[in-house]
Amino acid sequence: MRDQALFDKIDLHLIRVLHTVLLERSVSRAAVRLGMHQPAVSSALKRLRVLADDPLLVRSGGAMVPTDAALRMVEPAGAILRAAEALFSDARGFDPRSATRTFRVAASDFLDPLFLPRLVARLKQEAPLCPIDILPLSPDAHYHALLAQGEADVVVGNWPQPPGDLHLGRLFSDEVVCLVSREHPAVRRGWSTGEWLAAEHIAPTPTHPGARGVIDGHLDSLGLRRHVTARCAHFSLIPEIVASSLLVLTTGRQYCERFTAHLPVAILPSPVAFPALMYYQLWHERTHHSAAVAWLRDCVRDVAGTLRKQ
């Protein structure tokens, strides 16, 4: 009876608060994400602590950290929420006009600066009641784990060898070029392979520890190494950095062309031959047959297709 009495005190709202508080590690940030007042989240957390007989979050210096018991709750809580979200929606089919499920898209901004704004606009136009979470591919969030744990529905990016255990949809390919300031010496005189390798390069921060991007991965295969002197986690800021320095950005032509009209930058061919960049969307087996996520994947594909028509 004791277990039944405990179960009767747990509702889906409490699970949602638990999961969000543990992910955010902050009552105030959880309140913003949940659309609740902070005292209400604090009250729910107090109830959860009583139910769990554990503090769940404890202070460590200036931050809050989950206890061991709380860490073990993150994945089961997420699984409960995902199951509840899908319990009836896919069984009834997916109607974007009336659906209220949350879509979670993890994406770098390598593809095109217009992609994410257009995707959000498309989703809000066709599924106006569905919340949208755009998640970064950051060094502490491996995309495979995001998909496996249900923290993302699809991941959009480019990889030299996408993992074979995920589903894959090709979006498009793009030529590798270099973006430099118009004041860069190579604009006037060109460059050899040796000069390009020795130039100062800027590169995105790896998406997870130990990750090698497609540019450096290809150079490794050729036994070459470029001189990377700057890294930036915010890819959309790199063209501004390039415009005011002698740093070299090597990436897809489509991305670079978005900046030549309003920044003092130029596009140069790379003296090293690279295979075309391939952009994909990836998804996990757990959502492969979801009508809602299939609709999302169609939106991602369609929006990516509009970028190539300009």
What features would you describe in this structure?
This protein has 310 residues and is α/β, with parallel strands linked by helices. 42% of the residues lie in helices and 21% in strands. It has 13 helices and 12 strands. It has helices at residues 2-8, 12-24, 27-34, 38-52, 68-89, 115-126, 143-148, 185-189, 193-198, 214-221, 238-243, 253-257, 291-307, and strands spanning 57-60, 63-66, 103-107, 132-135, 154-158, 167-174, 176-181, 200-204, 227-232, 248-252, 265-269, 277-283. It has 3 domains: 2-86, Arc Repressor Mutant, subunit A; 95-172 and 279-307, D-Maltodextrin-Binding Protein, domain 2 (3-Layer(aba) Sandwich), CATH 3.40.190.10; 176-275, Periplasmic binding protein-like II (D-Maltodextrin-Binding Protein, domain 2). α2 (12-24) crosses α3, α2 packs across α4 and α2 (12-24) crosses α5 (68-89). β1 and β2 form a beta hairpin. The model has no long low-confidence stretch (mean pLDDT 88).
CATH-defined architecture of the largest domain: 3-Layer(aba) Sandwich
What is the CATH level 1 assignment of the largest domain?
Alpha Beta
Beta-strand percentage range:
15-25%
What CATH calls the topology of the largest domain is D-Maltodextrin-Binding Protein, domain 2
Q: What is the rounded distance between the termini?
A: 66 Å
Portion in helices: 40-55%
Order of strands in the sheet with the most strands? Answer: 4-3-5-12-6
Q: How confident overall, as mean pLDDT? A: 88
Low-confidence stretches: none
Number of strands: 12
How many helices does DSSP assign? 13
Along the chain, the helix and strand elements come as HHHHEEHEHEHEEEHHEHEHEHEEH
